[in-house]
TrEMBL record:
Transmembrane helix among keywords: yes
UniProt keyword annotations, A-Z: Membrane, Transmembrane, Transmembrane helix
UniProt KW Transmembrane helix keyword: yes
Transmembrane segments: 20-49
Superkingdom as given in the UniProt entry: Bacteria
Protein's name according to its UniProt entry: Uncharacterized protein
Length: 52
C-alpha cells in the first residue's frame, strides 16, 4: 500500500505543459472543425446535393 510522502506526484503536469496543451488544443480545434466542414461540403457536392 502506498505511503503518503511530501514528494511530488510523478505523473503531475507542470504549468508549462498545461499551457502548451492549451495552445495546441486552441489551434487544433478550429482547424479540425474547418476540415470537417470542408469534407461535408465536398461529400455533398460529390453525391449531388446543392448546398445553397
Amino acid at each position: 500500500m502506498p505511503v503518503p510522502t511530501k514528494a511530488k506526484a510523478i505523473n503531475a503536469l507542470t504549468w508549462k505543459q498545461i499551457l502548451a496543451w492549451g495552445v495546441i488544443i486552441a489551434i487544433a480545434t478550429p482547424v479540425a472543425l474547418t476540415v470537417a466542414a470542408m469534407v461535408i461540403v465536398a461529400f455533398s457536392l460529390v453525391i449531388g446535393i446543392n448546398p445553397q
